[in-house]
């Protein structure tokens, strides 16, 4: 071998296996027994393990013109025909079948049949590994499948045994993780140059706790914690890089490298598909394929060979994940020269590895353990120590604009790189809701897979009235067993007594006996019974625990069913029964009832929390998703397809009102009712004239507030300029007879003579009027039917409160412009005597701000508007 001009020499070694693909083209022969020439079956072989990895790396390198002179040292495998009984390689066996993929069929593994191991790789004194070489590689790739290589130093290359100065070692590791002589040697001598690749299923076989199928955030943080803090495997966290693969779904990358330099504190990155969660992609694409981790390892190796000094491992992960997905979608291929020989599609996968890809979202993982950082702001510390969501990381500001875009264009074109929870027609971006629904989904999935269930699956769902409790759970159940679920709803608050539960359970049994799965909603199960708090609970304990109920002397089995207990008075599970004393809590059988539940969901709904101490700015995103969904289902005529996107035609004021109204009185039902009451038939746009009358709106929202939002004027352009001039004119009138005579006195100057910064101050004061009015419960409405101009009473506390707000706004604006406080106002030097707290202002200066507030109705009248107070008692 001659050294390449690029200086690259790559050594690939590790465990070798002979993969036997057992394929058959048998047609369905029913239950017939006997020989049939159409039922042909064949076993074909292919080198796997380190041999397949070497072939794929060499092929991808050959496709890159800059790397074609790379030297490879690979396992020495003879090309002679193999047979299942040969004793030089481990023999693995898998049964391959055709699976439907769109309109075609592809070859995938239907069953892994196991492994026939050998005691030693060495045959006739010759090992198939490149051990002693005259060349020192700069990149070493190891495939460790725990088949013997890791435990036998005599198989290891001299390069690592002699401590050669390598650029990189990439270590494809299998369980048991981080164990054995090879790992200890590499960890102790090459940690800063070591890239470890692990499938997540192998990592889970260690002593770790890593969630599965709940949310990307939770799984990613679980992995980072285990790699950094779990003493059984945290030696992995000392390596330069660790990549944990979720196969076609994504990966987690833990790295100590920042800007090409080693850092003592590692960073974690998550690569994921927003539309799926781990495991769900392969549910839609059945079967398995051999070679997932080989694809990812080869892609990473390609980047290390391409640029050893500054490899782009991010691109290596992206291309590797994309190659894994291609491998699964296309499956193994029949050899063109020998159509009865099934083989790994090495050429197409190699091409994919060399092509740039960014098909997976990438986000930085928040450290699951809070680490104090003196440079971090308080808000940063609070966020780092709190509930991490990718949604908040990606979209922290401008939520109103984002919500508008969701309604207009849909969630997929708007929210990029954000995990989505889909269950039938239900769509959520809230991490807590997604995890709860997926937890219920997983519980119900396991329950339904076992056909002999005799007890109902009992879950609870909490949320405010109209939050969508029944809709969410129904969609989860329908997504699991479409066409097999029959929904039954019973509102316990309408039952006259416990005997009606017996009648309801008989209806449940009837559905079971019909062959369907009853999804039973026990609505308002937490209501009172005969003046007893939570009095219904005791009557469900036996059906939940025993799967039966007693009527007189006869015990009736219930059978396979799903019980959903929907709270009517408790909006969250942590509120359930907490208002009772300890004695009443136990007497109501709350602990017994809760112990029988298998899961719960807290539904957020379209309203912000009633507890003003709780912060939930993302309720407007939930509203947007719900509004878009409701309109897509009930008013399809309002949408126009533009460049492949369904765009909603809706008046800007109508959209603003739906999104920004303080509260929907009956949750989602109110949103749906407003749409239903609107005149949308044969309309191609949701116009203001489509809305129902004010008295009908008032059934579901505060109609004054809603309509004021619909007709909110946009304070910009010519209107803003007109009102700013009106504000200055009113100021001039107010200062009549109070002039100081100074050349700096603004009241003596017409609008056109004012300096630009003072004009901007007037504009800013006008722009802030809606915010000030909203802070005390006022809204702007069109002044129609000769409605008189509003007047603040002389000693009105609202006017004084707004004056204080206006002073603070003015003060902060001055500070932003570089002004300072001084004993005497000097505008040329940006000094103002009034830049002090409200309490320190003179009565004369306070009166100026109060007069401005009293002038707001006159300013609004210039634009044809007046103001009205929202009826607080209707915002319940």
If you had to describe this structure to a student in words, what would you say it looks like?
- The protein contains 29 helices and 30 strands.
- The strands form nine sheets. Strands 4-1-7-8-9-10-11-12-15 form a nine-stranded mixed beta sheet, sandwiched between helices.
- With 876 residues, the protein is an alpha/beta fold.
- It is globular.
- Helix 2 (158-161) links the parallel strand 7 (139-144) and strand 8 (168-173).
- The termini are far apart.
- The longest helix is centred in the C-terminal third of the chain and has 20 residues, at 797-816.
Rg of Cα set: 35 Å
Distance between the termini: 82 Å
Largest sheet: 9 strands, mixed
Global geometry = globular
Average pLDDT, rounded to a whole number, is: 86
Q: How many β-strand runs?
A: 30
Hey, roughly how much beta strand do the residues contain?
15-25%
Number of helices: 29
Enumerate the spans where pLDDT stays under 50 for 5 or more consecutive residues.
1-6, 371-385, 872-876
Tell me the structural class: alpha/beta
């Amino acid at each position: 071998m001659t050294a390449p001009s690029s200086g690259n020499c790559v050594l690939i070694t590790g465990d070798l296996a002979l993969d036997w693909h057992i394929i058959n083209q048998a047609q369905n022969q029913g239950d017939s027994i006997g020989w049939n020439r159409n039922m042909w079956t064949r076993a074909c072989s292919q080198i796997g393990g380190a041999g397949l990895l070497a072939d794929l790396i060499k092929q991808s390198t050959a496709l890159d013109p800059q790397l074609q002179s790379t030297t490879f040292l690979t396992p020495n495998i003879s090309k002679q025909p193999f047979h299942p009984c040969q004793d030089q390689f481990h023999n693995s066996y898998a049964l391959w079948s055709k699976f439907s993929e769109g309109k075609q069929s592809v070859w995938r593994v239907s069953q892994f049949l196991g492994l026939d191991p050998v005691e030693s790789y060495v045959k006739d004194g010759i090992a198939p590994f490149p051990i002693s070489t005259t060349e020192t590689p700069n990149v070493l790739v190891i495939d460790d499948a725990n088949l013997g290589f890791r435990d036998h130093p005599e198989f290891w290359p001299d390069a690592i045994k002699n401590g050669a100065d390598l650029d990189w070692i990439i270590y494809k590791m299998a369980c048991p993780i981080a164990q054995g002589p090879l790992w200890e040697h590499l960890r102790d001598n090459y940690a800063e140059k070591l890239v470890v690749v692990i499938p997540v299923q192998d990592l889970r076989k260690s002593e770790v706790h890593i969630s599965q199928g709940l949310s990307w955030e939770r799984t990613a943080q679980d992995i980072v914690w285990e790699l950094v803090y779990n003493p059984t495997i945290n030696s992995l966290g000392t390596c330069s890089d660790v990549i944990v693969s979720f196969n076609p779904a994504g990966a987690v990358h833990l790295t100590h490298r920042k800007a090409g330099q080693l850092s003592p504190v590692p960073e974690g990155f998550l690569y994921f598909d927003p539309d799926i969660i781990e495991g769900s992609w392969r549910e839609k694409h059945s079967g398995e394929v051999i070679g997932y981790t080989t694809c990812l390892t080869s892609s990473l190796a390609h980047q290390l060979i391409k640029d050893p000094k500054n490899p782009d491992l991010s691109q290596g992960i992206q291309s590797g994940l994309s190659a894994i997905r291609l491998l699964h979608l296309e499956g193994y291929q029949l050899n063109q020269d020998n159509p009865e020989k099934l083989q790994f599609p090495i050429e197409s996968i190699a091409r994919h590895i060399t092509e740039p890809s960014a098909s997976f979202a990438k986000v930085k993982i928040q450290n699951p353990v809070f680490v104090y950082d003196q440079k971090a702001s308080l808000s940063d510390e609070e966020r780092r120590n709190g509930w991490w969501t990718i949604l908040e990381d990606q979209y922290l500001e401008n939520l109103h604009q984002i919500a508008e875009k969701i309604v207009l264009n849909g969630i997929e074109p708007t929210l990029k790189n954000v995990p989505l929870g889909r269950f039938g027609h239900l769509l959520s971006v809230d991490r807590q809701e997604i995890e709860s629904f997926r937890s219920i989904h997983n519980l119900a999935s396991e329950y339904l897979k076992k056909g002999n269930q005799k007890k109902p699956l009992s879950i609870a769902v909490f949320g405010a009235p109209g939050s969508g409790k029944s809709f969410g759970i129904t969609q989860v159940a329908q997504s699991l067993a479409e066409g097999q679920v029959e929904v039954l709803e019973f509102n316990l608050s309408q039952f006259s007594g416990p005997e009606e539960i017996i009648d309801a359970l008989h209806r449940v049994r009837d559905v079971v006996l019909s062959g369907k799965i009853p999804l039973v909603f026990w609505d308002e199960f937490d209501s009172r019974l005969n003046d007893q708090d939570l009095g219904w609970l005791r009557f469900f304990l036996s059906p939940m625990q025993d799967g039966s109920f007693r009527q007189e002397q006869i015990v009736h089995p219930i059978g396979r069913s799903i019980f959903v207990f929907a709270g009517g008075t408790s909006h969250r599970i942590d509120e359930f029964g907490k208002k009772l004393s300890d004695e009443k809590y136990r007497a109501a059988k709350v602990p017994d009832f809760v112990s029988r539940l298998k899961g719960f969901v807290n539904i957020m709904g379209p309203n912000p929390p009633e507890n003003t101490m709780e912060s939930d700015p993302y309720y407007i995103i939930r509203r947007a998703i719900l509004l878009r969904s409701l309109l897509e289902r009930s008013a399809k005529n309002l949408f126009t397809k533009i460049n492949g996107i369904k765009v909603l035609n809706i008046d800007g004021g109508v959209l603003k009102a739906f999104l920004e109204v303080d509260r929907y009185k009956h949750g989602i039902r109110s949103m749906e009712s407003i749409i239903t009451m609107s005149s949308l038939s044969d309309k191609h746009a949701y116009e203001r004239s489509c809305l129902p009358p004010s008295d009908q709106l008032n059934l579901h929202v505060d109609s004054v507030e809603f309509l004021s939002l619909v007709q909110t004027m946009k304070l910009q352009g010519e209107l803003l300029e007109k009102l700013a001039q009106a504000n200055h004119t009113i100021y001039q009138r107010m200062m009549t007879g109070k002039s100081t005579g100074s050349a700096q006195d603004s009241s003596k100057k017409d609008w056109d003579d004012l300096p630009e910064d003072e004009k901007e101050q007037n504009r800013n004061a006008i722009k802030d009027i809606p915010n000030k009015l909203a802070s005390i419960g006022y809204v702007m409405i069109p002044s129609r039917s000769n409605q008189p101009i509003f007047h603040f009473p002389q000693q009105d506390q609202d006017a004084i409160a707004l004056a204080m707000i206006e002073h603070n706004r003015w003060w902060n604006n001055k500070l932003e412009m570089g002004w300072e406080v001084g004993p005497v106002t000097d505008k040329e030097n940006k000094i103002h005597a009034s830049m002090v707290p409200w309490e320190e202002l003179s009565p004369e200066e306070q009166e100026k701000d109060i007069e401005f507030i009293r002038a707001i109705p006159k300013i609004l009248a210039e634009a044809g508007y007046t103001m009205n107070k929202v009826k607080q008692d209707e915002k319940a």
